[in-house]
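Researcher: Sequence of Phosphatidyl-N-methylethanolamine N-methyltransferase follows. Predict its structure.
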Amino acid sequence: MAVYEEIIAYIPPKVAAYLPLSNAGYVYADSLASAIDVAQPSLWLAVAAIIFNPLYWNITARNEYRNHTLRKALGGSLPATYFFFVTIFSLGILRDHLYQDALRHQPHLAVLAQPAFKALAVALFVSGQVFVVTSIYALGIVGTYLGDYCGILMKERVTCFPFNVLEDPMYVGSALAFLGTAIWYESPAGILLSALVWVVYSIALRYEGKDKADKPEKKDVAAAAVPQTPRKSSRIADKTDSDVSSSAAATATKLKAAAASATAEANGTATPRRRTRKSVAPSELEGTPQRVTRSRSRAHGSAGEDTD
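Model: Prediction complete. Tokens:
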């Protein structure tokens, strides 16, 4: 205890007045079995607040994602997001107050007063707050307080610290801060409540974003608002592509033929065109040698024999 008191002595009095540094008035339990007083109403108020907060933001966020209730009532996505910010932040402060009040009214455990546990409590609380604060800084107000459920999507996934270290740094950081506070208060009941915080967060994580997985067409609200060009069916698209290919091939063939013809005419080897046969009178055919087919030739010979 001497080391603990020496550490406290270095903290300025004005700062120490706002911190739970003194354990004066603590009632220590005789055994671990008597370290939790379930008859205290403050304990159950803290339990109710810990369970209620994740239920509130999950139920209201899922309803907003499906029905746009707040957007219709408040006139847009941004007012709905700031409504979530005010209510969730306020409920968080109320929960923390009820949690600390419950720890004050619970028995304490003397072994947790050792300097090593005090150092552990400080490390857990500080690291937890670092995760929470840096998460809010990286996501912003809109990204932190359910802006995606209100139709405001971030341009890209956040990959900077602390999201490159933990998948859910806000939940982990909050649970660590609760545990550090419980150890600092030397409260076994606080450790039990911290475990409840983590269980509730774990359940909330399983349902968070479930609607987006079930309804991927509503995932990108901004993209859905942009008119899309209607797509052609595969059959029509195939037919159109075939017609274009055939037309292109025919055009290429005609161009090759025209080029070949022009080259032949320039060289004087062009094939003479077939002239249309000119009709003449029978009198003009007398005495004119004619090229006839075999059938006409045979008919002419038969006519000569009859004449003889």
